[in-house]
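Lab notebook, bench 4. The sequencing result for the construct came back, and we need a structural model before the next group meeting so we can plan mutations. Quick request posted to the team channel:

Model the 3D structure of this chain.
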Amino acid sequence: MVVVADNPNFALHQRTIIGPSAHVDPQSAATAWKQRFSFRYRLGTDPLQIAAMGCDDEGRIIEMVAYDAGAYKDRGGNPLRVIFHANYMTDKFMKDFR
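Done. Here's the predicted structure in token form:
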């Protein structure tokens, strides 16, 4: 499987926009995904998950987790990433990157 980490294609899962899991606004999550400065794969997850950190327009660090929606690809063959978790950075999430 070829995994393109710098894939620009993404969508926000409904749980990141409304409901009790909505911690940051959708625009902040989208901006942070486009401005990722660190990411890692969560091996052993199916579908493959990607944990990432990025900054929103206010300079706040946002933690995000996305998965590959492998059935959906762009013209270049890159899979769609679905962001299903977005929150302001927590210590627990930061420990995953150490």
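Residues 10-95 form one domain.
Will bring this to the meeting.
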